[in-house]
Amino acid sequence: MKSILHKADTRGLADHGWLVSRHTFSFANYYNPERVHFGALRVLNDDRVAPGKGFGTHPHDNMEIISIPLEGDLEHKDSMGNTTVIREGDVQVMSAGTGIFHSEYNKNADKEVKFLQIWVFPDKANVKPRYDQITLQNSRLKNQLFQVLSPNPEDDGVWIHQNAWFHMGNLEKGYTGAYTLHGKGTGVYAFVLDGEVSIEDRHLAPRDGFGVWDTDKITISADSDARLLLMEVPME
Length: 236
Fold this sequence. Notes:
Number of domains: 2
Strand order of the largest sheet: 1-20-17-22-15-13-14
Oligomer: single chain
CATH architecture of the largest domain: Sandwich
CATH topology of the largest domain: Jelly Rolls
């Protein structure tokens, strides 16, 4: 088993006033040659957007982009004709493929919106752009790791053009369990949203990231009530 630990306070920081973003991996003006990606996981940004502010229309191509709101309401518009609002409990995915334009704004005038912006390298280039989103039921997350993303359109959650699986759980203190990886050549990157957990006896606090590979499974225990995101991706 191999592993890498990224403590929350070691992440890159971009403070634009209206946007405060913490970068687990190199992004924009933050570059760390030892933290460019974890396998196919290219970007993990922890964003806070001021009331009424947001990202103007901008392009993407050949990337699988996942947004997970943690607090507040985020309004999305794109060149495919989608105008939606995503909220805590939603998971949004865009396959940028041959190219899309989109914008994201905090829909609320009185509170921040907090969300994760995640990019995964696709397994094929120049696919037709697509958009999808789901709303999770809290009961599906309680004391279990519920699948929210996979490579299979027929499975639970959204899907992307990559052999990747994301799971989320709202774990009560005292929870113990294991996560089994889907096959050789993948690794799992754990990101603690709230609370404290231990993975393979490594204690993790809020916003810590912990990547593990060259193993069949990992053991997880909740040291307090916690929210956890697991992202399994190919390592090559």
